[in-house]
Design brief:
The complex is a heterodimer.
Chain A: H1 8-17, H2 20-41, H3 43-57, H4 60-63, H5 75-92, H6 94-122, E1 134-143, E2 146-150, H7 156-164, E3 169-175, E4 179-185, E5 188-197, H8 201-204, E6 209-212, E7 222-226, H9 227-234, E8 243-246, E9 250-258, E10 272-275, H10 276-282, H11 284-289, E11 299-304, H12 310-317, H13 320-324, E12 334-339, H14 340-343, E13 348-350, E14 353-356, H15 359-386, H16 388-400, H17 405-442, H18 453-478, H19 483-488, H20 499-530, E15 541-545, H21 549-553, H22 555-564, E16 568-574, E17 583-585, E18 601-606, H23 610-614, E19 618-621, E20 634-638, H24 639-645, E21 654-657, E22 660-668, E23 683-687, E24 694-699, H25 705-719, E25 728-729, H26 730-736, H27 739-773, H28 775-783, H29 788-822, H30 833-860, H31 863-868
Chain B: H1 8-19, H2 26-37, H3 43-55, E1 59-66, E2 74-80, H4 82-100
Antiparallel strand pairs in B: 1-2
The chains are: A alpha+beta, B alpha+beta.
Domain MacB-like periplasmic core (chain A): 97-318, 510-700
Domain ABC3 transporter permease C-terminal (chain A): 367-482, 750-861
Protein name (chain A): ABC-type antimicrobial peptide transport system, permease component
C-alpha cells in the first residue's frame, strides 16, 4: 500500500529556506511525526500539523548556515594569497597577461578620452552664471518655398522687445558678429577678434572682471580687454585707464580687464568688447538699419525674467516682426528664443524644424566608446574562460583543501580587479600621452582633471566596474566546478560551452566591421567632396584682408609695386574670400522671370583682374576687360545662376538691379563656395571696386612661399603702415571647409582601428590558446600524415566562420546608419558594394593573419615533442 | 550570567530529553511532551529550544543511525550534560524551597 504523503509544497519550502546541514534531521523528524499522526489522528489532522510544524521550523536560528569548520584566516591574509597567485599567473602567462592588459587599457583609454570629450561637450557654455536664463533671439523666414533659420535679427526688434515686453526680460543686449580689428598701443599692433556690445552684455554673460567695471560700456569711448590681450598690448604695465587705438582711427580708454573666456563657451574668440554706441556712430549702415526691419544683420541676446520660461516668451514675441513691418510679412517671419543650454548641441534647422546638431556626435561617440570598452572586456572574459580548463585543477585543489565558493569568487574577482587596476594605470599614462593629439584633432582644450576628487571617485568606480564586468563570467563559472570531477580528470566542458565565447567573438567583429565600414564611407564622402571641381586655382593664391582705408586709396600703386617685386604674377580685389559668398541680394530681375519668384543671388564685387588672378574657367562669353568701358555695367554669372534663371543663351542678356541695366558678359564654371557638400549658390559677379574687402595675389611659383612673402611684406608695410601683414593661403582656407567632416573621419578612423586591433588581439589570444590545447591532437594527426595545410585549415576554419557571420550581421547595420548619415549631404557619394566587400575581406584577411600565425606555429611543431610529455 | 537561567519550556524539553535518555531526538521529544502534558507542541519550538540548550551546553548532541520510519533520514540524538543535570536539580531545589516557605494558613 502506498504510504500517505505530507503536503509537498511545505517540504519544498523547508528545503528552500532551511540551512542545508540541518535539513536531513528536520525532515526526518517531520516525516516521523507525520506518519505517527496519520495513524493516531487521521490524515487531515496530520497534514495540518505537518504544515504548522514546517512553518514553526522557519526560525532564524535554524536557517543560519553551518559555521565554517575550517580556521578563519584574516581577510587580508587571503587577499595577500590571492594577489600572490594572481601575480604568479600573470608572470607565468606573459603573453596572455599582456594581451589582457594591453587590450583592456586601450579600451579604457578610449573610454576615458571619449568620456572627457562628452563631458566637455555637455558642459559647454556653463561658464556663464545665467546659463539657464540666457537666450538668443532667432528667426524662421520662408521664401521660394523653403524656411531658413537665422540668428541674425533686425535692429528695431530690440527696441520693440524693450517697449512691449519689458517685463519678460531682465536684460537685453545687441551684439555685432565677432570681427577682426586692429588694436594698437604704442608700437604694439595686434589683429584680434571682438564684439561691439551694449553695456548690459558683460553682466548678462557674467564676464569675470579682474579690474575696472563691467558696466563701463555705456561710455562710447571705453573698451574692455581680455587679460591676454591687455598683456600683449601693455606687457606687465597696468593696462587700466590706458589708451588703445582701434583700426588706426579711434581711441578708446581701457575701463576694464576681464578673465579670458574659456575655450568651452560660445564667445571663446572674443578678446575685447567695444561699446555698441561706437558701432552705431562709426558705421553709417548700422545707423540706417535702426529703423529697417528688412536688414537681418545683428545678434540679439536676452536674459529672461525670473518668473517666466523661454516657451512663454517665445509665444509672445513670435509675430513681432510681421506686426511691425508689413512688407516683411510675406516671408512669414517667426521670432523665437534659442536657450543658451541648446546653442552648442542643438542648433541645426531644416525647413524651420530642429533636425540635428552636435548632440548626435555626443551620442555616437559615447556609444562607440562604450563598445570599444566592451570589446576589451569581452577579450578578458574570453581568454579567462578559455583558460578555465587549465585553472580547473587549481580550483579543484583549493576546494579540496577547504576553500568555499565565496572565497573562490573573491579570488577570481581580486584577480580581475588587479588586472583592471594595472590596465587603468597604463590607461592613465596613455591618456596623458594622447591627450594633446586628441585635443588637436577634436579642437578642444581638455585637461585631465587630476586634482578633482570627484573624478578620482568616478575613475575608481569605473575601474571596479570594469574589473567586475570582465571578471564576472570566470569568477562565477570557474568557482562552480566540482572538485571530484575536476581532479579525477573526467572534466567535460559540455557541448555548448564554447557557444558564449563564439557569440562574444561575433559581437566583437560585428561592432568592428560596422565601424570600419562607417569609417570608409565617411572618408569616401570627404574624398568625393574634395574631388569636386573647385572652379578656381587654389595653389599659390594668397589673400590679404583690407583692414584699413589706407590700402583702398592706393590700390593701383600697390598693384604695380607688388608686380614689380616679381613675387606676384597678378593681383585683384574682391568683396568676399575666393571660396565664400558673403552677401546676397533678392532684387534682381531678368527676362522671363516668374513674378512670384525671388531673384535671390549671391553678389560678389570684383576688380578687372579677378578672373585671371583666381583662375576662372569660362564656359561661355568673356571676362571683364579694361578695354571696354561698358563693362562697368557688365556681370559674370556662375552656371548655377544660369540654371536658376533658366536662360537659354545667357551671354548678352539684360539683367535689372537697383533700376540699372546690366549685361551678361560671360558664364563661369561654378566656384565651390560655402559647404563643399551642398549645392552651389547662384552667384553674380560685378565690377565693384568700392566693395573690395580682400586682396588676392597669384604668387610666382618660381619662388618658395617664404621668399615670396618676404618680398611682399615690405610693400604692404609701405601702403598700410598701421596694421600687421596678415594673409591666408586659398588652399588653407579651402581645407577649413572640411574641418568638421575631417574631424569625424579622423576620430572614426582611430576608433575603428582600435576596435579591430582589440578584436584581433582577443582572437590572437584565443587562437594561441586553442593551438596549445590541441597540441596532442595535432601531434597525432601529424604522425598519421596530416599536412601543414590541413592543420592550418582545421585551426583557422572556426574563426573564419565566426568572422563571416559577423560580416553578414554588420553589413545591413552599417548600410542602415550610413545611408541615413549621407542624407545630410546634397553632394553625396554612392554606397557602392565594394566598400562592404572591402571591409569584409579586410576583416577576413586580418583574422587569417592573426590566426594563421598561431596555427602554422602549432602545425610545424615536432610531434615527438608534443606527444612525449606527461 | 546568560547560561544559567532555564526558561519554563526549556525545562520541560530538558526533562523530556532526560526521560528519553539514549533515544532523545526532535520527534521523540515532541512525542514525550505531548504525552506528559497532554497538549500539542510545535516541532519548531522544540528544535529551537534544543538549539538554545545546546548553546548553553546543557545538552550535547551527536548524529544517530538511520531508521526506516524516517524515510532513511538520520536523527540527531541529544544527551543531558552534567551542567544540564545540575541546572535541573537547582530548579527543582528552588521550587521545593519556595513550597516550604508557603505558610500553612494559605491553604485554609
Amino acid at each position: 500500500m502506498k504510504q500517505p504523503q505530507p503536503p509537498r509544497w511545505a517540504t519544498l519550502l523547508l528545503r528552500w529556506l532551511c540551512a542545508a546541514h540541518l535539513l536531513d534531521e528536520l525532515e526526518g523528524d517531520l516525516h516521523e511525526l507525520f506518519q505517527k499522526r496519520v495513524k493516531s489522528e487521521g490524515l487531515r489532522q496530520a497534514k495540518w500539523r505537518y504544515i504548522c510544524d514546517t512553518l514553526s521550523l522557519l526560525h532564524p536560528v535554524l536557517m543560519k548556515s553551518k559555521p565554517n569548520p575550517y580556521p578563519k584566516p584574516n581577510r587580508t591574509d587571503m587577499l595577500q594569497n590571492y594577489l600572490k597567485i594572481a601575480w604568479r599567473n600573470l608572470a607565468k602567462n606573459v603573453a596572455f597577461s599582456a594581451i589582457n592588459i594591453v587590450g583592456l587599457s586601450i579600451g579604457m583609454t578610449t573610454a576615458i578620452l571619449i568620456g572627457l570629450w562628452m563631458w566637455d561637450e555637455l558642459s559647454f557654455n556653463k561658464y556663464h552664471q545665467n546659463y539657464n536664463r540666457i537666450a538668443r533671439v532667432m528667426q524662421h523666414q520662408s521664401y521660394n518655398g523653403t524656411t531658413s533659420t537665422t540668428p541674425a535679427t533686425p535692429l528695431p526688434m530690440r527696441a520693440a522687445l524693450q517697449s512691449e515686453y519689458a517685463g519678460d526680460f531682465s536684460r537685453i543686449s545687441l551684439s555685432s558678429w565677432t570681427e577682426n580689428r586692429i588694436l594698437s598701443a604704442g608700437n604694439n599692433k595686434l589683429i584680434k577678434k571682438g564684439n561691439c556690445v551694449e553695456a548690459d552684455f558683460p553682466l548678462m554673460m557674467s564676464v569675470s572682471m579682474l579690474e575696472g567695471s563691467a558696466m563701463s560700456l555705456n561710455n562710447p569711448t571705453s573698451i574692455l580687454l581680455s587679460k591676454s590681450v591687455a598683456k600683449a598690448l601693455f606687457g606687465s604695465d597696468n593696462a587700466l585707464n590706458k589708451t588703445v587705438k582701434v583700426d588706426n582711427k579711434n581711441h578708446f580708454k581701457v575701463t576694464g580687464i576681464f578673465e579670458d573666456l574659456p575655450h568651452t563657451t560660445e564667445f571663446r574668440d572674443v578678446t575685447f568688447l567695444l561699446p555698441w554706441k561706437f558701432f552705431v556712430e562709426e558705421e553709417p549702415w548700422v545707423k540706417r538699419s535702426e529703423t529697417n526691419w528688412g536688414n537681418n544683420s545683428f545678434l540679439l541676446f536676452v536674459q529672461i525674467a525670473p518668473k517666466t520660461t523661454f516657451e512663454q516668451v517665445t509665444s509672445k514675441i513670435e509675430g513681432i516682426k510681421a506686426r511691425h513691418a508689413k512688407e516683411e510679412a510675406r516671408f512669414s517671419p517667426r521670432a523665437f528664443l534659442h536657450p543658451m543650454s541648446r546653442w552648442h548641441l542643438y542648433s541645426e534647422w531644416e525647413n524651420g524644424v530642429l533636425v540635428r546638431g552636435r548632440i548626435q556626435f555626443v551620442w555616437l561617440f559615447g556609444i562607440i566608446g562604450g563598445f570599444v570598452l566592451l570589446l576589451a572586456c569581452i577579450n578578458f572574459m574570453n581568454l579567462s574562460t578559455a583558460r578555465s580548463q587549465k585553472r580547473a585543477k587549481e580550483v579543484g585543489i583549493r576546494k579540496a583543501v577547504g576553500s568555499v565558493r565565496t572565497q573562490l569568487v573573491a579570488q577570481f574577482f581580486s584577480e580581475s580587479i588587479l588586472m583592471a587596476t594595472l590596465a587603468f594605470v597604463v590607461a592613465l599614462i596613455l591618456v596623458q600621452l594622447f591627450l594633446p593629439w586628441f585635443n588637436q584633432i577634436s579642437d578642444k582644450q581638455i585637461a585631465f582633471p587630476w586634482g578633482n576628487l570627484q573624478s578620482w571617485i568616478f575613475a575608481l568606480g569605473f575601474t571596479l566596474i570594469t574589473g567586475l564586468l570582465a571578471g564576472s563570467y570566470p569568477a562565477l563559472y570557474l568557482s562552480r566546478f566540482k572538485p571530484v570531477k575536476v581532479l579525477r580528470g573526467t572534466f567535460i566542458v559540455g557541448r555548448f560551452s564554447a557557444l558564449p565565447r563564439q557569440v562574444l567573438v561575433v559581437v566583437q567583429f560585428t561592432v568592428s566591421i560596422t565601424l570600419v565600414i562607417g569609417t570608409l564611407i565617411v572618408l569616401r564622402q570627404i574624398q568625393h567632396a574634395r574631388d569636386r571641381p573647385v572652379g578656381f586655382d587654389r595653389s599659390g593664391l594668397l589673400s590679404v584682408p583690407m583692414t584699413t582705408a589706407d590700402l583702398r586709396s592706393h590700390d593701383q600703386a600697390l598693384r604695380s609695386d607688388l608686380l614689380q617685386t616679381g613675387a606676384a604674377v597678378n593681383m585683384a580685389e574682391s568683396s568676399s574670400p575666393t571660396a565664400e559668398v558673403w552677401s546676397s541680394d533678392a532684387s534682381f530681375s531678368w527676362p522671363g522671370k516668374d513674378p512670384d519668384q525671388l531673384g535671390d543671388f549671391g553678389t560678389v564685387g570684383v576688380t578687372h583682374e579677378y578672373g585671371q588672378t583666381v583662375g576662372w574657367q569660362f564656359r561661355q562669353g568673356r571676362d571683364f576687360s579694361r578695354q571696354f568701358s561698358g563693362d562697368k555695367l557688365g556681370i559674370v554669372l556662375n552656371e548655377s545662376a544660369v540654371k536658376f534663371m533658366g536662360l537659354k543663351s545667357p551671354v548678352g542678356t539684360n539683367i535689372t538691379w537697383n533700376s540699372e541695366q546690366y549685361t551678361v558678359l560671360g558664364v563661369i564654371r561654378d566656384v565651390v563656395t560655402g559647404s563643399p557638400f551642398m549645392p552651389i549658390q547662384p552667384t553674380i559677379y560685378m565690377l565693384k571696386e568700392e566693395w573690395a574687402a580682400f586682396i588676392h595675389i597669384r604668387l610666382n611659383l618660381s619662388f618658395t612661399a617664404r621668399q615670396a612673402l618676404a618680398k611682399l611684406e615690405p610693400v604692404f608695410k609701405k601702403y598700410n603702415p598701421g596694421s600687421p601683414f596678415e594673409y591666408k593661403f586659398a588652399s588653407d582656407e579651402y581645407d577649413q571647409k572640411f574641418k568638421a567632416e575631417e574631424q569625424i573621419g579622423q576620430l572614426s578612423s582611430v576608433f575603428a582601428g582600435l576596435a579591430i586591433f582589440i578584436s584581433s588581439l582577443g582572437l590572437f589570444g584565443l587562437a594561441s590558446f586553442f593551438a596549445e590545447q590541441r597540441q596532442k591532437e595535432i601531434g597525432i594527426r601529424k604522425v598519421l600524415g596530416a599536412s601543414v595545410a590541413n592543420l592550418w585549415q582545421m585551426l583557422s576554419k572556426d574563426f573564419v566562420i565566426l568572422v563571416v557571420i559577423a560580416s553578414i550581421l554588420a553589413i545591413p547595420i552599417a548600410y542602415y546608419f550610413m545611408h541615413d548619415w549621407l542624407q545630410h549631404y546634397t553632394y553625396q557619394t554612392t554606397l557602392s558594394w565594394w566598400i562592404f566587400a572591402a571591409a569584409m575581406l579586410g576583416a577576413l584577411a586580418i583574422t587569417l593573419v592573426t590566426v594563421s600565425f598561431q596555427a602554422i606555429k602549432a602545425a610545424l611543431l615536432n610531434p615527438v615533442k608534443s606527444l612525449r610529455n606527461e | 550570567m546568560k547560561g544559567t537561567y532555564l526558561g519554563e519550556f526549556e525545562e520541560v524539553v530538558l526533562l523530556a530529553v532526560a526521560i528519553r535518555i539514549g533515544d532523545a531526538y526532535g520527534a521523540a521529544v515532541v512525542d514525550e511532551i505531548e504525552q506528559q502534558l497532554g497538549r500539542p507542541v510545535n516541532l519548531g519550538a522544540v528544535h529551537t529550544a534544543l538549539h538554545r540548550l545546546e548553546e548553553k551546553s546543557l545538552v550535547k548532541s551527536e548524529m544517530g543511525g538511520v531508521t526506516s520510519e524516517r524515510g532513511g533520514r538520520r536523527k540527531r540524538l541529544y544527551n543531558v550534560t552534567a551542567t544540564g543535570r545540575r541546572a535541573l536539580e537547582e530548579t527543582r531545589q528552588l521550587r521545593n524551597q519556595m513550597w516550604d516557605n508557603i505558610p500553612k494558613i494559605a491553604w485554609s
